[in-house]
Amino acid sequence: MMAYKTVATVKKVQKFIHLLIHLTAFILGIVGIYAVFKFHKRQSLPDMYSLHSWIGMGTFCLFGLQWVFGFGYFWFPKATLSTRTMLLAWHVYWGRALLYMAVNLA
To answer: How does it sit in the membrane (predicted)?
Structure first.
């Protein structure tokens, strides 16, 4: 969302910046999840033992799906314009929902 509100340039560049920001977040999320599981293993703690863990993992998995579908439909579009127009509302809705889910977990 930040790329569309703060970067004053052509739409294609905004989309690319949006993609890169979310790709960076996804990679950092993978690194963070790896670190948590590694820490739990070293400390002999159980993994995924709380509701917070399960909601966080669900949020991250949904974020990954959002990124893959967004990349497939909007950056590397094979879908028709009418399909992309219909999916844009859902992409924005679920993007905001995932942002709120991630912020509430922090």
So the answer is: Multi-pass membrane protein
For the chain, what percentages of helix, strand and coil (3-state, to nearest 5) are there? 80, 0, 20
State which residues form the domain around 43.
Answer: 2-105
Whole-number CA gyration radius for the chain? 16
List pLDDT tens digits, range 3-56: 777 878 888 888 888 989 999 999 999 999 999 999 999 999 999 999 989 999
Report how far residue 95's alpha carbon sits from residue 19's, in angstroms, rounded to the nearest whole number.
13
Contact of 71 with 19, CB cutoff 8 Å: yes
Q: Which residues contact 84 (CB under 8 A, 6 or more apart)?
A: 73, 74, 77
Tokens encoding 49:
């033992």
Contacts of range 49-58, beta carbons closer than 8 Å, 24 or more positions apart: 52/105, 55/101, 55/105, 56/105, 57/33
